[in-house]
Design brief:
By secondary structure, the protein is α/β, with parallel strands linked by helices. It is 35% helix and 19% strand. The two termini are 28 Å apart. It is globular. The protein folds into two domains: 11-147, Rossmann fold (3-Layer(aba) Sandwich); 180-410 and 430-473, Dihydrodipicolinate Reductase, domain 2 (2-Layer Sandwich). The protein binds nicotinamide-adenine-dinucleotide (NAD).
């Protein structure tokens, strides 16, 4: 298989917050990898813009170190890092003041693709958009990339959309959700819409239920102040899990183009039922052997913030009525694992009798680790001894199926940044989508705030609180085990 690198136009990419954690861990190493892949044209430049008083050479050094730290060793090459560094520039800018804006205006070219990545705290998104406009830095085709969180409720998201809209058209705004940049997430669309096999079965008639799990092993240590105001619902469900749900549940768009896809996702969000309180389980990790509990990380002994959430979600439309979607996400769980699991119904009648046991087909789409898919099918157990049935996986781990090429599959950020440069918004959230997601989330949060609900404690390294297991048990179902 020969990978195809599609060239992009010359560009100036300005990274506001270019010295921050996200830029060092993801954005800049991702750009280096695209540079190595030959996807950065001769006169493309990356401009770091942040508060620190750095010179170009300091920024180049910072980026080289970030590459050494965050790019796998075998992908590093001293000569290429040096060449990449010549594309880097730096301007000291104050997002809330006047410092640095004239210098930035002088540096950024008007006749190339312009992209401005807002890798700063959300309170600065509006300031940056306004200043790019008032200092006449952005050309009419410029793109802005806005990081999460996009608001903390409907009202703040609407206010942010309005402030961005004062300076930029919707077609210029790229709200990033890096889950959408994952190879498997796009493969979910390929599997659904490029095969005849699945789509006829992809509905309430044949699908018993869907599980979407995003499990993390990390705690919120060091991010407690931020996380305490957010919690798993705002930090993970409203955006990442919602996007996965939409791509799983949406109708086939008529074309794979940005608005056609986003229209279908929006329809799903609008078809979500309200979630009654007994369909939600909130959890908070307690202390364990040698590890602190959530309370110690939050520094608020009375904190009611959830680090775990599990919920049963119903979709009121013709395709999905009666097929629940179970969502689950949490910190400090047993393993780092994200997957979408489609449980198909059993055959209407077993010709093999009761001894054959019960079997169902399960399609698992793994987002991390080992991106890939497998489909569990039922076959005859080999050998004599009658018709005994056994479930076996048809495995499609990308690394196995695609060989060494799979190692070069771009990371989510790499792919999304290149989509920004190409001007392709398909994998970015539209303003109305984000608002609809908040409109669904807000009453749920208001409900538990009003009742004063406390999250249930769970053991670090577990699968979450016991009640989360019960959420499925009471429906005669089981969560797929969280494992690496
Ligand atoms: P950070 O605190 O590490 O970095 C912030 C950057 O913003 C620094 O470069 C700093 O110099 C710059 N900055 C701060 N105030 C400024 C001002 N007034 N003017 C100009 N520059 C200013 O933050 P981070 O972790 O890199 O996060 C950046 C954004 O990305 C946030 O919105 C965050 O929610 C989001 N995000 C981060 C991660 C992550 O893994 N770090 C993941 C997803 C989303």
């Amino acid at each position: 298989m020969v990978s195809r690198i599609i060239p992009v136009e010359p560009f100036d990419l300005v990274i506001f917050g270019g010295t921050g954690d996200l830029a060092r861990r993801k954005i800049l190493p991702g750009l280096y990898r695209r540079f190595c892949a030959g996807q950065m044209p001769e006169n493309a430049r990356v401009i770091g813009a942040a508060r620190g008083a750095l010179k170009d050479k300091d920024f180049r050094e910072l980026v080289s170190k970030a590459i050494e730290e965050f790019v796998p060793k075998k992908r590093q090459d001293a000569k290429t890092i040096k060449e990449f560094a010549t594309r880097l520039h730096y301007v000291t800018v104050d997002a809330t003041g006047t410092d640095g804006w004239d210098a930035l205006a002088k540096l950024v070219r008007k006749d190339v693709v312009q992209a401005f990545y807002f890798s700063v705290g959300p309170s600065l998104f509006g300031d940056l958009a306004t200043r790019l406009h008032t200092h006449k830095i952005a050309n009419p085709d410029a793109r802005i990339v806005v990081e999460k969180p996009f608001g903390r409720d409907l009202e703040s998201a609407q206010a942010l959309n309005a402030v961005l809209a004062d300076s930029f058209d919707e077609g210029q705004i790229y709200r990033i959700d890096h889950y959408l940049g994952k190879e498997t997430v796009q493969n979910l669309m390929a599997v659904r819409f490029a095969n005849v096999l699945f789509e006829p079965l992809w509905n309430a008639q044949y699908v018993d239920h869907v599980q979407i799990t995003v499990a993390e092993t990390v705690s919120v240590d060091g991010r407690g102040a931020y996380y305490d105001k957010s919690g798993a619902m705002r930090d993970m469900v409203q955006n990442h899990l919602m996007q996965l749900l939409c791509l799983t549940a949406m109708e086939p768009p008529s074309r794979f183009d940005p608005d056609a896809v986003r229209d279908e996702k929006l329809k799903v969000i609008r078809a979500l039922d309200e979630v009654p309180a007994d369909n939600i389980v909130r959890g908070q990790y307690g202390p364990g052997e040698d590890v602190d509990g959530y309370v110690a990380h939050s520094q608020n002994p009375e904190t009611k913030t959830e680090s775990f959430i599990a919920m049963k979600v119903d979709i009121s439309n013709w395709r999905w009525k009666g097929t629940p979607f179970y969502l689950r996400t949490g910190k400090r769980l047993k393993a780092r694992s994200s997957e979408i699991v489609i449980h198909f119904k059993q055959t209407p009648h077993s010709i093999f009798g009761e001894d054959a046991g019960s079997h169902d087909n399960v399609l698992t789409i793994r987002l991390q680790p080992d991106e890939g898919m497998d489909l569990r099918v039922t076959i005859k157990e080999p050998g004599p001894g009658g018709m005994r049935l056994v479930d076996v996986p048809l495995d499609m781990t990308f690394a196995d199926a695609l060989g060494p090429e799979a190692e070069d599959v771009p990371d989510a950020y790499e792919r999304l940044i290149m989509d920004v440069i190409r001007g392709n918004q398909t994998l970015f959230m539209r303003g109305d989508e984000v608002e609809a997601a908040w409109a669904w989330t807000d009453p749920i949060i208001a409900g538990w705030t009003k009742r004063g609900d406390r999250p249930q404690p769970y053991e670090p390294g577990s699968s979450g609180p016991e009640d989360a297991l019960m959420l499925l048990h009471r429906d005669g179902r089981r969560w797929r085990e969280i494992r690496k």
